[in-house]
C-alpha cells in the first residue's frame, strides 16, 4: 500500500528504466539504537542492524530492501515450484509426460514431493529469461499473461466441476463463468496487448510442453496397444506342451513386463529366435500404489500361467511410494519364498489348480519371508557343512553350495501341519533346484517405429520425437537394483 501511495503521487517518472518498487524506497535512513526512536514495524530489522554495528550509522536502505525483495521472491516462487511438481507427477502417472525421478519427502502426506529434473529445468528457464530480457517490464508482462491465463482456465474448469462433480444446475455454472470469466477476460485482453513486449514467452513455453506431452502420450498409447494386441494367446502356449517346444535349462527366468494379464510378446520373440529357456519362468510386474507402505504380507500377488507342469508363474509385486526396493539377493529370496508358499497353498486350497486356463487367472495374495507369517514357507541358511539330504515334513530340501563360496545350507522350511502331496513336493524341489542354479533377469528393450506407409507427420512424431523422449527419460526404478552380470535385454521393434 505504501508503494501504491507513492506511485499515485509520483506517477510521472523521469526515465523508463527506473523501477517503481525501488524508487519508493528512501535513499538514506538513520538508525539509532534507542527504543524511543524505533518504530514497531521495523523493530526486528533495526535491532539486527544495531547488533551488527553497535552504534548509530547512516546506511542506504535500498540494499536491505533488496534482500527483503529477494526473500519475498523465494517465498512466492514456492507456489510455482510446488504446483509444477504436482502437475508433472499427475501427468507422468497418466502417461502424458516422460518418466522423471519423483522423491517423496514425507511418509504421511502423499503430496509432498520433489523432482530434481524439473527443479533444475525451472532454474535454467529463470536464468535464461532474466539474461534474455534484462528488463523487469518485459518479465512483468510475461508473468501477468501467465497468471491471468491460469485464472481464466481455472474458472472454466471450475464451471465443469460445478456440473460434473457437484451435480449442480447448468444455469449456476453459466452464471459463475459469466461473472468471473468476464472480469478475467478483460485482464486477459489487456495482457495480450503486451504480447510482443515479453508476453509471448509463456505462450511459447506452453506450446513446447504441449507438443512434448502430446508426442509422449501418443507414442505411449501406441506402444501399449501393440503390447495388448500382440499378447501370446494361452492356446499357443498349450499347443507347445509341457516342454514349450524348447530346451528347458536349469535356473529361473524372471521376465519383467508391464502387463498384468496374458503372456508378453517378448516371450514368444525370445523363444522363437533362441529355442531354449529356463525350467522355471516367472512373469514379474512391479506396480506402485498410492499408499506410503505396503505390508510384507500383502506384497506379492502370485498365480499360474498354464497348467501346473509348465512351471510358469505370474507375480505382481506392489510397492508404496515410500517403500525401499531391496537389493537383488533379498528380492530373490522373498520372491522365491512367495512362489513356494503359493505352490503349497494352491494344493491345500484350490485342489489341482485353476481348471480352465483363461487369459486372466486367479491371483493369490502371498506375503514375503520378512512377514514371518505363522504357517508359511521360509528359506533358511545354516553355516554347517553337511550333505544334501531329505528330512521330515518341516524341512523339505537342503542344498550344499559350491566349495568356492561360503558354505551354507539353503533349504525351504515348511510348516509341519499341512500334508504335502507328492506333486507339490516335486514342484517345490524343482523350484529350489532352479533357485540354486541361478536367476536370470530378462528385460525388454523396445524400439518404436512407424509402420511403412504411414504419413510423414506420424513418422516424425514416432521415429524422432518419441524416440528422443524415450532415450532421455528415466527408466523403471527396479532396473537400477538388478545385477548386470545376470541381466539379459531382449530387443524388439514395435511397428505401430
From TrEMBL:
Keyword Transmembrane helix: yes
Transmembrane annotation, as ranges: 42-59, 65-88, 113-133, 139-163, 170-193, 199-216
Superkingdom of source: Eukaryota
Occurrences of domain K+ potassium transporter C-terminal (ranges): 251-495
Cell location: Cell membrane
A Pfam family reported for this protein in Swiss-Prot or TrEMBL: K_trans_C
Residue stretches of biased makeup (Basic and acidic residues): 386-400
Chain residue ranges for the region called Disordered: 378-400
GO MF term (any one): potassium ion transmembrane transporter activity
Domain K+ potassium transporter integral membrane: 50-238
GO cellular component terms, A-Z: plasma membrane
Topology of the protein relative to the lipid bilayer: Multi-pass membrane protein
Key word Transmembrane helix present: yes
Protein keywords: Ion transport, Membrane, Potassium, Potassium transport, Transmembrane, Transmembrane helix, Transport
Annotated family: Belongs to the HAK/KUP transporter (TC 2.A.72.3) family.
PANTHER family xref list: OSMOTIC STRESS POTASSIUM TRANSPORTER (PTHR30540), POTASSIUM TRANSPORTER 8 (PTHR30540:SF10)
Protein name per the record: Potassium transporter
Species per Swiss-Prot/TrEMBL record: Vigna mungo (Black gram)
